[in-house]
Amino acid sequence: MALKRLAMITQEADGWQVPDWRRLQADLITDVAALCEHLGLDPARLPDGVDADSDFPLRVPRRYLDRIEPGNPDDPLLRQVLASGRERETVPGYGADPLEEAEHTPVPGLLHKYHGRALLVVTGACAVHCRYCFRRHFPYQTHLSGGRWKQALAWLRERDDIREVILSGGDPLTLGNERLAALLEELAAIPHLDRLRLHSRTPVVIPERLDDGLLSLLEAPRWRATLVLHANHPREIDADLAARCRTLGRAGVTLLNQAVLLAGVNDDADTLAALSDRLHDAGVLPYYLHQLDAVAGAAHFAVPDHRARALHAALRARLPGFLVPRLAREEPGEAAKTVLAG
Ligand SMILES: *Cc1c(COP(=O)(O)O)cnc(C)c1O
Ligand code: SF4
């Protein structure tokens, strides 16, 4: 069943102009039962149960699914995408807007929290729905209504203290190269912007997204672009992704990775060290290892601070300093992310 449905989606999207990654993005599973069937799992026998009817629906591209081990309910990649029954637990301290982002929104579609940097919410869409996502309750409708990026661009033009624009979302690389090019052109015309940064998890689930068109956008001489990937587990970085990252690196793009520390996914020193190794091999430096944001539905992924610090110390003891990410957490009202261990 599930396979048949996937085949149909692929065929429908199979136009000659559709780039590879677009087809791969449309080739996905959005249904808990279909996902379990595909992986040979019985949803009724999963220890945490499943949530087949989540407000934050399942979304797993097949390109990512292929890296999940069939028949293993504890697979660390599966845990990141399967809606678990524990998402319904109400846990004190976990809410809809843990970072109080609503307070840092001068105009719709733009977050300004930190000195010199502004974050553009360019889209509400993501290639994958990560169950730990801190924006799972984000009011994208408010941010993306009406004139799209117009107000945000106007705000940026006026604010010459802003030197860096960060494209985020949702996931900015769910946008096609044409639309990205149009946005980058507007941004490039703002003289006080010196740095361009993109945060994206799309390449991790669909490496083909790092295509030639994107390469030429990011290697443009206007500024030195930084791409921050969001990989959480070494198995998420396959040979194809590594090769594409190295190509971007050769073109002068700075490549960093931001991971989230997740119970049952990457909360052991071997996994984190292997992640750093894989990243290094791809020419990507570990940037942050984030403590989970207290978003409702994700409490079961939390790792206590004392364990997080111990894991960080274990990494320090076995890796060169430049392969140890900063352990950080986002705290509302602070001037920067809080570094728990550097
Ligand atoms: C995390 C974040 C940034 C970037 O912080 P860095 O420490 O520079 O990576 C900027 N704006 C917002 C709103 C953020 O949440
Ligand atoms: S890609 Fe990022 S924004 Fe999108 S669901 Fe995953 S964690 Fe959230």
From TrEMBL:
InterPro entries: Aldolase_TIM, EpmB, Lys_aminomutase/Glu_NH3_mut, rSAM, rSAM_sf
Radical SAM core domain segment(s): 112-330
Cofactor dependency: [4Fe-4S] cluster; pyridoxal 5'-phosphate
Reaction it catalyzes: L-lysine = D-beta-lysine
CDD domains associated with the record: Radical_SAM (cd01335)
Pfam families from the UniProt entry: Radical_SAM
Alphabetized UniProt keyword annotations: 4Fe-4S, Iron, Iron-sulfur, Isomerase, Metal-binding, Pyridoxal phosphate, S-adenosyl-L-methionine
Domain of life: Bacteria
Family: Belongs to the radical SAM superfamily. KamA family.
Name of the molecule in the record: L-lysine 2,3-aminomutase
Source organism per UniProt: Alloalcanivorax profundimaris
Lineage: Bacteria, Pseudomonadati, Pseudomonadota, Gammaproteobacteria, Oceanospirillales
